[in-house]
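During data preparation, we tokenized the protein backbone, and the record follows.
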Amino acid sequence: MSLYDKFVENKRLRRFILLLIVIALFYLFRSMMSLFLLTFIFTFLSVQFVRAVQKKFPKIKPIWIITPIYLIIIALLIFVITNYVPQLITQTVKMFKSLQKFYESKEVRSNPYLNVVYNYLQQINLDNQIKGAITQVVNYISSVGAIGFNIVISFLLSFFYTSQVEQMNSFGRQFLKSNYSWIFSDLFYYGKKFVNTFGVVLEAQLMIAVVNTALTTITLLFMKMPGVLALAVMVFLLSLIPVAGVIISLIPLSFVAYSVGGIRYVIYIVIMIVVIHLIETYFLNPQFMSSMTHLPIFFTFVVLIVSEELLGTWGLIIGIPIFVFFLDILGVHSIKKGDKKPRINLKKSL
């Protein structure tokens, strides 16, 4: 038996080598990471929607299901961009001004507790940092063309894939019968685990973010907070970060609340965050992440810190799903959509 045949027969070794090659390829094309991830997210959600509709109406082709949905999404985006983006910009400017007014107010300096915070902010030169942050925001806005291009291309690719999902699957199965079928068989193995971990966790976190944002927005409206639209967008983006997102959102919300209603409003915000965190922990996670092992808080924060360093902002969103994916590959934790409880292989994890 030749060395090549021995390598092919050794399934564990060849899968390990193939995984390293895939990781190396993603590293080489890391500049296109946003395009890859956005395409996967859009495609995963659209295919899930098509499958859900086809369970009730199996004779409907995917293109007739997905085309109206994408047209509605495009119409809504045009409506939001033309009507609400100017409001979002205006409210964001007002929020920055209210924070600056609160920071420079005499009430802050006269309060012995807040005076400690004020002196610390003076030491770190907050004014220049705020100006630097605004400059950074302007730079992000100036690069919106590249971001918009990635979103548009990902949106189109997901539409083409979903509208011909059966043909794509049929075409992909041909590779499993090719002369190098073992390569595509192993890629299919990793792809299936990737969808069963990354996709499920990301979909669940998206649903949690929507619910968290809705609850927070309703509370902010009752409190008559300024710039609710800007705050709602901020809360939604932060809610995509598992565990830490809710805690991080407490800081800017507390500053805005104090500038509006003083300590009483800050207490209201803290109570709101605690209640939402309890709802997320004891209701949303069991409902939306029933097929996922809840990682210890220590591991969650370590993964977020490391993934943010390696992948930037994307790391805060996809770090946990990728970590769970590797746990699945190692056999420590196996995740499968629809499971009521996570399956833990204790023998392999010890």
Summary: The CA atoms of residues 103 and 118 lie 7 Å apart.
